[in-house]
Amino acid sequence: MRLLLIDPPFYRFMGYYTRYFPYGLAALAACARALGHEPLIYDADHDTQARGVDYQALPRRYPAYLAAVASAEGPVWEELARILESIRPEWVGISALTAKMATVMRTASVVREILPRVPVVVGGAHAMARPQEILENAPEVDGVIVGEGEPILSRILVGDRNVLLAMAGVAPGLLTRSAGVCTEVAPADLGSLPPPARDCFVRGTYAREDLGLMMTSRGCPYGCAYCFSQGLWRRRVRFVPLKALEDELDDVARHGVRHVTFKDDVFTLDRERVVTLGGLLAGRGVTWDCVTRVDRIDRELLVEMKRRGCTGIKIGVETGSERMMERLDRSMNRAAILRAADWLRHSGMHWTAYFMMGLPEETLDDLDQTYRFMRQLGPDFASLSGYEAFPGTELFQRALEKGIVKAAMTREEFFRTNPHDYYFTRDDRGMILPQGVSYPAVESAMHARFHRYNSSPGRLMKRVRSRASVWRGEPRAMANDAVRLLSWLRSRSRPSREVPR
After folding, report:
1. Phi and psi dihedrals of 254, rounded to 5?
2. Is 351:311 a contact under the CB 8 Å cutoff?
């Protein structure tokens, strides 16, 4: 059976470059192929010509996105139609993130118009959090995968190709309109899964670095209130066996990849495993970077990671306000973060700190503390993003109880609302602001402050040095980085003067 798995367009409509291939869809494609099916992946969001990389300024481009999804006309939708006509898949799966829900529904509409009898299934994080809402808002969708995709898809594909029509509601892990409940499916055995299919794409060419995305574990033991991981994995961590990781590294090497990015929620949970895996990478001449927490690193571990080829580390700080840290259930404090920042600065590796703003009940004083704390930490890059209300998280539930967000959205609301504001009930997004000050103005001012910090010559030079190993393995990456750096530097107009005190 021919399957088409689609990552719907989103950033592409706004001229933004999307890093990496859709790992989750490639993992599903590998499972389908192992069962004897013919999977293909259409990454509709991938655009090698895109230059936008300043994601802090993304909300400015949302009007272009809303205009693009208002109808099924335009070059991207025409491209989707051509691919559907050419492939004529017998089964279609669409990946759904919360911010992409309007384009998920528009994609499903195009599929239904061209292939009226082909089952259309939606999966992904938002499908897990709001399966019934998707079915209510999207008549084009036949079913929603609720849970980990590989074991559910494998059960569906073993049966009749029209399982959604002939066995509505019977397939475990699949919610349909005729089924009131969805039977849970046990998580996948990570050691038995084949490496993600990096060779199943129907359009676009990826840079070798963008094919180097890997995950060595699933889940996180922590309970941060803003994160959906605890709802998806239930605070349980499962590790991919080292033998399976070696097999995937062999596959990565066949694509010429010389730098790997690990997207585990907390890469350094198991210290011994990090050192062992780092040794495997160093032995292959592969550099790497990862994401972790400040309370899962120490000075000695950082030395070992750098020796084994680690070039960069990303950590979540989120806020500089102790009050907000408690509300986010971060289980860490400013002293611990400062200590880790000192280790990171002396490690010689490039490090990024992630921050959020616009959190429910956040005040201007909290924001000012965040900015001052960021300056005190001195990361090589400080990333600031606006809080988005993700259903299925503890923070969403608390905001719901306070009336800051609403429990569900209609189809029309998804199509007319900026994704940045999904589910919010008030323009101030729950922040406590003085009269006469708007949230968008404060957000713009904070972004301008962070941008000025990040664009200092010293920090730019350290970023350049951290990219040297990538450029050696893929020379054209240097030219691409230069073009995107210029785009990022030019992305800011004159900064707002309305700044938090």
Report:
1. -65, -20
2. no
- Predicted TM-score (pTM) of the model is 0.92
Whole-angstrom CA distances from 266 to 96, 333, 387, 433, 491 are 23, 18, 20, 34, 31
Nearest to 266 by CA among 227, 219, 312: 219
Domain 209-387+433-490 has CATH 3.30.930.10: no
Nearest to 154 by CA among 4, 256, 34, 11: 34
Q: Which residues of 303-319 are buried (b: 16+ CB within 10 A; e: fewer)?
A: eebeebbbbbbbbbbbb
Alpha-carbon distance of 349 to 16, in angstroms, equals 27
31 and 193 Cβ atoms separated by less than 8 Å = yes
- Domain-wise residue ranges, the chain: 2-175, 209-387+433-490
Phi then psi dihedrals of residue 30, to 5 deg:
-65, -40
Spatial separation of the C-alpha atoms in residues 233 and 472, rounded to whole Å: 38
The CA R_g of the chain, rounded to the nearest whole Å, is 22
Which DSSP category does 349 fall into?
Answer: S
Per-position pLDDT tens, the chain of length 501: 999 999 999 999 999 888 899 999 999 999 999 999 999 999 999 988 887 777 777 888 899 999 999 988 899 999 999 999 999 999 999 999 999 999 999 999 999 999 999 999 999 999 999 999 999 999 999 999 998 999 999 888 875 545 554 445 556 788 988 766 677 888 899 999 999 999 999 986 888 889 999 999 999 999 899 988 766 666 789 999 999 999 999 999 999 999 999 999 999 999 999 999 999 999 999 999 999 999 999 999 999 999 999 999 999 999 999 999 999 988 888 999 999 999 999 999 999 999 999 999 999 999 999 999 999 999 999 999 999 999 989 999 999 999 999 999 999 999 999 999 999 997 677 888 777 788 888 988 999 999 999 999 999 888 888 888 788 777 777 877 787 777 777 765 444 333 333
Nearest to 424 by CA among 439, 445, 444, 409: 409
Domain 2-175 adopts which CATH fold? Rossmann fold (3.40.50)
Q: Is 407 helix (H, G, I), strand (E, B) or coil?
A: coil
Instruction: Show contacts of 68-71: CB within 8 Å, 24+ apart.
Output: 68/9, 68/13, 69/13, 69/102, 69/103, 69/106, 69/415, 70/415
